[in-house]
Amino acid sequence: MPASFSAWIWSPQHSRHYCCSYDEHGSLLEYHWSGVADAPAAAQPTTTPAYTQAPSNPVQYDQPRTPQATPQNQSLGYNVSYSPPGGYTTLPARTALPLDIQESVGGDRPRRHIRTGNDGQDHEKLDTRFARVVASHIPYFFVRGRVFKMLWTEPAGQATLGQTRGSTHFSVVTWNEVAYSEIRRFVVINNKGTFSQCIPIQSYRGKGATKQGLQVQDHGVIYTGDENTEPPTVLDGEEITKEPIRVLPKNTETLIPSSRINYGKPYAVEHNVKVLEIGNVIPEHMHLLEAYFASAMKV
After folding, report:
1. Closest CA to 9 of 93, 56, 78
2. Close Cβ partners of 242 (under 8 Å, ≥ 6 residues apart)
3. Domains of the chain: which residue ranges?
4. pLDDT digits (tens, 9 = 90+) for 214-253
5. Where is the composition biased (Polar residues) (predicted)?
6. Can you tell me the distance from the alpha carbon of 44 to that of 38, in angstroms, rounded to the nearest whole number?
């Protein structure tokens, strides 16, 4: 018998609610549909689902209950990528998503989508301004001090899933492993030909370098603005000693005040990814960028 059921989720495609059942280990067992399926007779199961009782609140249940009617354009929680057929269907394979991520895609949990602006969109669609740099322009774009953002994907660590990364999308990838994707910002340090060595810019969800576990000595303030722009004040509890670095923005791209550059965590960024330019470190601060990076790389 399954250990728990998710909250009910509205399926606009089927105009019905469904929920998921999990075993005691948190692995997905089945999808359960409310009411009677609208599929052809040949596709009907031999027994009618018994979950036709009165609706209840979207919480974890020992047994599923039929939800209240929901408008067709309203969705309760995250719209999972799997679209099962009508009726009461048993999945042939289990999902690799851990329990804490399975719970985040059902019920009334906050939606988690990749966004690059306050556009009100709830689907994972990359900003059309992101583009690959043409081969002839790569030597001119990926230069030291260039600041850009891109869609970054890497394996999801079980210990921190959903706790420290905002605007994040989790997905199952090759070999049934879990990955997360998010928009990240980088500063180019060295162009290596087919890729560039870059260091990240992160706000740590507005906490700056006060976030527990950080190597504060490797962090510094980085901000966008013109020569009249004052650098943002460090947050209470931050022990940053490095001079702030200013970025001259391109168009309307900016960095939020809690943005911090991490000189001690270089990444390899391939040159064939889609990027969106933010700006350039001003020439007067290039020596700071180089010196702080070199210092952080010393063993």
Report:
1. 78
2. 219, 220, 221, 263, 288, 292
3. 1-111, 131-297
4. 999 999 999 999 999 999 999 999 999 999 999 999 989 9
5. 56-77
6. 8
